[in-house]
Structures are given as C-alpha cells and as structure tokens.
Amino acid sequence: MTSRAGRVATAGAAVGVTSAVASGAGSLAAAAYFARRVLTPDRQRPDDVVVRAAGAHTVTLTATPQTMVPGRYGLWIDNGFGHVRIGDVVDLDQGSATVERELLAVDRGYLAPGTARWNAYFHGAPPDVTIGARTEHVTYAGELGPMPAWVVRPDGARPGVGERWAVLVHGRGARREETIRAMPPLLEQGWTCLVPSYRNDEGVPSGPDGRYALGLSEWRDIEAAIDHAVDHGAQEVLLAGWSMGGAIVLQLLDRSPLSELVSRVVLDAPVIDWGDVLAHHAHAHRLPRHVGSLARTMMNQRWGHRLVGVGESVDLAKTDWVSRADELHHGILLIHSAADDFVPIGPSRALAQARPDLVQFHEWEVAHHCTEWNTEPDRWERLVREFAAW
C-alpha cells in the first residue's frame, strides 16, 4: 500500500456508504465495498499534483501535505511518460497556497505548468538509468507464470558469481523503482540485488481472483525469486520489504523452507498487523467499528468470499506479528516514521518492544509513508549499510 493512488482508493471506501450502514444489509454492503477497495489492485493512477510554474532551478507546486514535506521526491509528467526529480522546499507562500522546491533534474519529458503525479520513490527508471548501476533484466518462473526482475551486482562481480543476494520487495501498488534507494549501501557491502515482481503487479500475471492477499499468497512469488537466486549462486539472502512488501517478507519467513537461507531482514514502514491498518482506515473515514470488523470477517469466511471477490481466505490473524512475535527468528532492521498516516507506527513499536533480541528499531519523525529515505537519506543508508555488513 505504498502508492498515492492506493491511499486515494482506500479513502474512497468511505464514500457513499455512510448513509447505508444503519441497516444490516447496508452494513454488509459497506463492509464488502471497504474490503474490495483494500484487496483490489489500483489500475488507474491519476495525477495528484498541480505544477504552477517551472524555472531553470525550481518548480512551484500547489501546497498539499505531501508537497510540503522536506526531502527528495519525483514527479511523473506527460501522463507518466516523463519524469523529474525535485529536492527540498525553497519557499512556502501561504497567501497563494504554493510551495517552491528545488528542481534537481528533468530525466525525460518537458516540465511545464499542469498536472503531474507525485513519486515518493524519487527514482523514475531502472537502476542503470537512475544510479548508473549495470542492470540485468531477467525473468524467473513464478507460480503463475514468468515474472520480470532486475539483477544488479556489486562492482567487479561477474554474472553467476556472488554468494550474498539481497531480495528487495516493493509495496502494494508500487513499482520496483521504490527499492532502488537500498541498492547503493547494499552493493557497497557486496550484496547482489534482486528486485522481483509479484502477482497483480502491472504487466505481470494476476492472481486467480485478481485480488491482493495482503502477503498471504504473494510470498510464493518471492520464494520463486529466491529460488532463482539460489540457482545463480546465492548461499545467503537478505530480505528487504516496504509497506505490504514487509508483510510479504514476514509471511515468507514463516512459510518457506528457503527462509533458512535468510540471514537478516530490513523492513521499511512495514505492515506488521493488517488488522490494525484496516481499523485505522475505517476510523479515519468514519466507518462504524462493526463495519470494519465485518469486512475483516468477510475476507476470511467462505460465505463472504463472493461478496469480497476473493477465491481464498485472507485471514488477517496470520498477519499480526505482534501477537506472533515469539515465532520470529531472524534479525530485523525496522525503520518507521511516527508521521506515517497510512500504516500506523504502533505495531512496529510493539514488535520492537516484544522482541528487542531480534529487532533494531529506528524511528523517524516527519516522513510520510515509506519516505524515511527521502527525508534523511544519509541516516537511512548508514543504518542499512551497517546492518548489511555484519
């Protein structure tokens, strides 16, 4: 659940249902609608930023909570065909409700006044383009069919050589570019980076029902990616996951025999407990508590599957790693921001408190969801570099 479109779609779950929840049938319909919005991939990614002016060194945007946050970000322009990278806030004009930010680079396209789409990944192309790292575009055999992936090796490493592989898992509705921020510190420590796809990503096979399982089935695609790494020499694996990617990683650690190869785990703004995330969004959009609880039940119980649109149970109890903390066995670097308004930080704090023997927890203050690196890149990369070195 990393994309801006995903946040808008989930927020939309509250629209049009409030007046219906007074009746039992209305509650059922509202719960089904809410559940579907959580589980359905976001096929449309509309523009969500207005470019007011563009100069040689700065760009002026309409001020919104996301455009005013410090750090480095990107903008998709020209309906996604173009991309620019922007830096810190230069000026905030409250009178005109605009924010002026540094213009770092126009990667492609023509930047002009109009609409654009916010890119929290900062990077807007594969690693060979964005960080100058030689990138192999490979395909591995997933459970549902061929899955594209990137392989980036440390400087001097040859294809087929390298025992330490880092498998980087993006979040819900996100793109593989989300993971590029982790490559420099990992490559520096000698890790070959593999960035896989998973079911329901754009341009890859969908799951049988076309719905997300919130990590409960997607982990099998990441297991297949690790199998690909093993076939190419991997003997030790670092797993990293952002948002729902973190939930996927945790399911793999629990369910896959290949977890024996995993020596360490990096989680950035992870979903530690999907029940907590759904309760947060239901409350934020003023859905009665029983509607959120009913949505959760419908995801899990067979009688609700047709209404929700899933072919297999989505049991959120299996995603509660605070309750399941004793079942974890891998060292974890856990990074999360107190200002995350999409995946609340509470479960991350609770997991760190429950398993201080395994979890190294580092809290950010102002970053929005999955943008800790954007606001403090030096700190983020130092933590990952040190964690990857031991």
TrEMBL record:
Keywords (A to Z) from UniProt: Hydrolase, Signal
Residues of the AB hydrolase-1 domain = 167-338
**What SUPFAM superfamilies does this protein's entry cite?**
alpha/beta-Hydrolases (SSF53474)
Tell me the Gene3D superfamilies matching this sequence.
Answer: alpha/beta hydrolase
Leader sequence segment: 1-24
What is the protein name given in its UniProt record?
Alpha/beta fold hydrolase
Which GO molecular function annotations are given, in alphabetical order?
A: hydrolase activity
The keyword Signal appears for this protein: yes
User: Which superkingdom, per the lineage?
Assistant: Bacteria
